[in-house]
Design goal:
Largest sheet: 5 strands, parallel
Strand order of the largest sheet: 11-14-17-10-18
Distance between the termini: 79 Å
Oligomer: single chain
Low-confidence stretches: 174-178
Mean pLDDT: 88
């Protein structure tokens, strides 16, 4: 009879709670059971562990083996528990002597039948939690980059079960079992080129609106006929945003790892740009499934969510965006799981002015009747439009503008130039109020001498004429504040409010 305990972590949303893998060897008829709310893939670890132990030269102990994954009421999923179960069996059967290091180590890894350690998703979150309390991490070699990005100082990254056992026994590591914490900075994927704003010609009003949206973190709706450049504008917004901080990059990579079931470092440090198709379901956009995985709004966290052909999305999908647009957080609840995911994204939406796409176009004739136009516009509810800060019409460019040289006397602004102005505007906001203008509270927005005397009266007059809601009026003020920050102005003047009001008209 023998007993052993090995530490690992589960994954529930963006949390990585500690799991103690307890192994008990008892007398009686041979048997193997796993308790502690394991998923089917965890229960199947018996066959993987048995084959891996045999291939690596270890004995499968006789008698009854009971594995308890504590706490018992926490769901356990994935193949990450293969390695701690195998090590627990070896310690309980006396084939591996427990060491003080093992008591402060966390183990992760899926076992192949030949003993190879395969990488598992979600290690970044677990490594982040483990490294904060000083635990040593033993992860597959394929997860070493994630663990090092999480700041792990003591790390073992074996390639096989045999390598892991040698490292735990205090023997010299072999092959992939080197302590990765001493190998220098992790090798990350190369950064892809950013689409240049200078490629957009003849859309000065829309380009300026894009800069304002980037400066204040505002949502943006582009409305124009096909071929007017709406998608080109949206694709260039991520290049105007400042680089992610290390903590933000970890947050983005962790969400990506949970949703995509991969390492999460494939796009390390790059702001997300998500473009779901208009046939996507509410679960795909907001999150869901039996395991309450994050959706597109969370995958776009710290980046851009681009919804092309906005009126073509299902009405329920569009209405589900209202909460994350307002709070920056989304709650996903299922029968067994509830998870809160961050969803602080910038929404960029694009739509045609009508069903045929040519209402108001200078070159093509619209075929829609007044009733058809009304039905098309009615697909977007007033509460949703209220939550979108900038409504910008986009017209097809003139031929002379489209053929304009980037080296002419008046070249279009480049991404580098606009991004520098955006960075300065954002720095002013963080220094002044500790957040971007899109998240600025109303009390702070209207406090002190932040507004010129005539700015509020202009807004009040326009709000009454246009029957604007209080939410829409406050969003106009936030946009005006961003316009002032781009100019370097200390307070919001009448002209800033007037320009912000011009960004609330689709036609």
């Amino acid at each position: 009879m023998g007993h052993a305990q090995v530490m690992s972590r589960a994954q529930v949303g963006l949390a990585a709670p500690l799991v103690r893998v307890e192994v008990h060897l008892g007398s009686g008829l041979p048997g193997f059971s796993i308790v502690g709310l394991p998923a089917p893939v965890v229960r199947e670890s018996k066959e993987r562990v048995r084959a891996a132990l045999s291939q690596c030269g270890f004995d499968w102990p006789a008698g009854r083996i009971t594995v308890n994954l504590a706490p018992a009421d926490l769901p356990k999923e994935g193949g990450r528990f293969d390695l701690p179960i195998a090590v627990g069996i070896l310690v309980a059967s006396g084939q591996l002597c427990p060491t003080p290091d093992l008591e402060h180590s966390e183990l992760y890894g899926e076992l192949a039948l030949d003993g190879e350690l395969k990488p598992v998703p979600g290690v970044l979150l677990a490594a982040l939690q483990g490294s904060r309390i000083g635990h040593r991490l033993i992860v597959p070699a394929g997860n070493a980059v994630e663990a090092r990005l999480a700041g792990s100082k003591s790390l073992l990254a074996p390639a096989t079960l045999a390598d892991a056992v040698r490292g735990l026994a205090g023997l010299a590591p072999v092959d992939g079992a080197a302590a990765s914490g001493d190998e220098g900075p992790p090798v990350l994927p190369p950064v892809t080129a950013v689409a240049d704003l200078a490629d957009v010609r003849g859309q000065h009003h829309a380009v300026h609106a894009l800069a304002v949206a980037a400066a204040g973190g505002h949502s943006l709706l582009l409305c124009g006929p096909p071929g007017s450049g709406k998608s080109m504008l949206a694709q260039r917004l991520p290049g105007l945003l400042p680089a992610l901080t290390h903590d933000e990059a970890i947050e983005v990579a962790a969400i990506d790892a949970i949703a995509q079931r991969r390492s999460g470092v494939q796009s390390w440090g790059r702001r997300p740009f998500r473009t779901p198709h208009h046939t996507a379901s509410a679960s795909a956009i907001v999150g869901g499934g039996s395991d309450a995985r994050p959706g597109e709004v969370s995958l776009a966290h710290r980046g851009v969510l681009f919804l092309d052909e906005l009126p073509e999305f299902d009405r329920r999908v569009l209405e589900s965006l209202r909460e994350p647009l307002e709070t920056g957080v989304v709650s996903v609840s299922r029968a067994m799981v509830r998870a809160d995911y961050p969803a602080d994204f910038q929404l960029v939406a694009a739509m045609n002015p009508c069903a045929c796409g040519y209402h108001g176009d200078r070159k093509a004739q619209c075929r829609c009747t007044a009733a058809e136009l009304q039905r098309y516009r009615a697909r977007l509810s007033g509460p949703l439009l209220d939550r979108i800060d900038l409504h910008v019409p986009v017209q097809r460019g003139k031929p002379e503008d489209l053929l304009l040289s980037t080296k002419g006397p008046h070249p279009p602004p480049s991404t580098v130039v606009v991004a520098a102005a955006v960075a300065k505007a954002r720095a002013r906001q963080w220094a002044r109020q500790g957040c971007l203008n899109a998240r600025l509270e109303v009390s702070a927005l209207m406090s002190g001498d932040a507004l010129a005397p005539g700015a509020l009266s202009m807004l009040a007059q326009c709000a009454e004429q246009e029957m604007m809601s209080a939410r829409a009026s406050h969003r106009v003020l936030r946009v005006a504040r961003s316009i002032a920050d781009l100019e370097g102005a200390v307070r919001v003047e009448d002209r800033h409010v007037g320009e912000a009001l011009s960004f609330r008209r689709l036609a």
